[in-house]
Amino acid sequence: MLFLFGGARLAEVGMQSSSQSVPDGYHKVVAVLGWTASLTLLLAVLSLLASWRIAWYEARQ
Question: Any stretches that span the bilayer, and where are they (predicted)?
């Protein structure tokens, strides 16, 4: 997801530097991809913390 957002953001920057106009909906798509990537990253961190906590708890018993 992060690579998809990075590629879309790179394409957006490239389109902005050209003489043609960027489609109106493209900025919204990139913003939604960014929020989705952030949420996915947050869920991955929470999952890692939860698995670490479970492993730590089981090691104590």
Answer: 29-52
